[in-house]
Amino acid sequence: xxEEIKNNPNHWTKNVPQIATKEHCSTRWNGGKNGKYxxxxxxxxxxxxxxxxxxxxxxxxxxxxxVCKECNGPDxxxxxxxxxxxxxYSWIWIDTYYCDHRxxx
Length: 105
Hints:
The chain is α+β, with helices and mostly antiparallel strands and 105 residues long. It has helices at residues 3-6, 22-26, 75-89, 94-103; strands at 18-19, 52-56, 65-68. It is 32% helix and 10% strand. It has a three-stranded antiparallel β-sheet with strand order 1-2-3.
């Protein structure tokens, strides 16, 4: 772990709520350019500056995820919800999931 992360209690990997900045919204996340994948992994909300978001470590249960203020909750519940989504929708690419997953609901 870098010194920057160790010395910053609010670093995004510390699993604490963050406020999205313009930089967050334009950063390459999961290989997507210009913030393409900077979204809530549960509801699909695309973060904009000023939105609250949180990084959730997936551990052995699922991949690491981002969640919005509305979907936030206990880590274990969030991991289980996302693991269920991955199983149900054969998660491959985030934007495919958002298109396919939301059309039927």
